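>> received
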Amino acid sequence: MTTTNKRLAALEKMVAAGPKDPFPYYGLALEYRSADRKEDALAVFAKMREQFASYVPQYLMAGQMLIELGRKDEAKQVLQAGVDAARSARDSHAAGELESALAGLS
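>> returned
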């Protein structure tokens, strides 16, 4: 088993256990993205938005993936939700990145 497969299996196991921390979900989504399993990654990001809406980093990654897949309307929704989450967290840097990505869709 390769290192990537081991890491993926470990993250899948952690997420299956239902952690109270968003980071295993985020790591799993990024591993899926790296493995070109974009739909699996987007499903994890969707679950994260339900359970960890305040975890700002997820929004840019999910939005970028949706843009890559040509799903601009969904990307706009995710990116706007990310802007709102970043503003709530008083994270102006993340808000700026998300706003920039959103402006690129117009």
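>> The chain has a mean pLDDT of 93.
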